[in-house]
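Collaborator request, handled under Task 6.
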Amino acid sequence: MHGLTGSAIAIYGISAVNLAEWMNVGIGLLWSILGTFILAYIITKLLKKFLNKIQDKIISKFQIVGMCAMSFMHGAQDGQKFIGILIIYNYILKGLSVPDFIIPMEHIYTILFTAAVMFIGVSIGGEKIVQNIGSNMTNLNKKQALCSDISTSATLLIASLNGIPVSTTHVKTMSIIGVGKSEKNAVSKKSVIQIIKAWVLTFPVCLVLSYVLAKAFMNF
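Structure tokens returned to the collaborator:
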């Protein structure tokens, strides 16, 4: 979003920024952080007694379902952003005006391409991110991890159904913190601060970098 905005400003000027849509981004950021934390905290409290009665072997099977749900919602959120940009770019290359309503299934190859790229990207760098967030920040047992999966999927589902763009990384991170706090687990302040710094720096860096690159490519 920030990279797209930086490029738009470089090409069309500040008037290209749609403040109404940026309000949705702000709502999404608030929901990602505060909404997810509250939802994860409550879900963990509600499911604690029920999950304590279930054996870990069965919990492991539930975790597979939870991970599938998260993968699906990951595509429903982050995937749509990339698909939308690629479709718009395709219309521009063909010299066509971008329609107000786009039927996704008409662009099945774009959808499959985006899914493949996301799969490859996660398989390359996903493990280190998972270790940093899942292992270094706080320790969750299988039942607590399942609560985190449920919270993440629920948060992303609510956001997607309402057309609110959110960051799946923000949501997953806050769900882990919410579960950890609900269970009174120790949460690494150092890891949390590092993640927050990365979030804060990402926005301006992406905007400025995309602005500079767009200006540079326009000169060729």
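The cover message to the collaborator said: "The chain has a mean pLDDT of 82. Residues 132 and 173 are 10 Å apart (CA to CA). Please let us know whether this matches your experimental observations."
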